[in-house]
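Changelog entry

Holo records now carry the ligand SMILES as an explicit input line rather than a separate metadata file. Below, a converted record for zinc ion, shown in the new format.
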Amino acid sequence: MSEPIVYAGTWRAVMAAAGRRCQCRGECGNPHKKGEGRCPKEHDRYASKHRAPVRLIAAPADPTVTGLAAAALSRGELLAWCPECHDGARRAANRQSRNQPDPEQDSLFDL
Ligand SMILES: [Zn+2]
Ligand SMILES: [Zn+2]
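Structure line, unchanged by the conversion:
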């Protein structure tokens, strides 16, 4: 078993709560039909023969929170993510915030 050295205590607690399985429920844009709505990736399991084992990360439930703000979050605000879901969720969240109507630009994109 390999685990990240930094914040190992927090990481372990998050993973224990998650059952060492990615907690994405479609936030990444993938409906995860195979996992019945939840990503089936588990830590240290091989997703396929040709790929390295899955390394889950403990990251904010809100994937747009990063850096110091993320480091200041408590355990309860963290979820277990596989790297693909975390990337996907962050992209989806950024896309969503860009799509928020901006009053000044509204007329420019009023098609
Ligand atoms: Zn996942
Ligand atoms: Zn996902």
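Spot-checked after migration. The longest helix spans residues 83-98. The chain has three helices and two strands.
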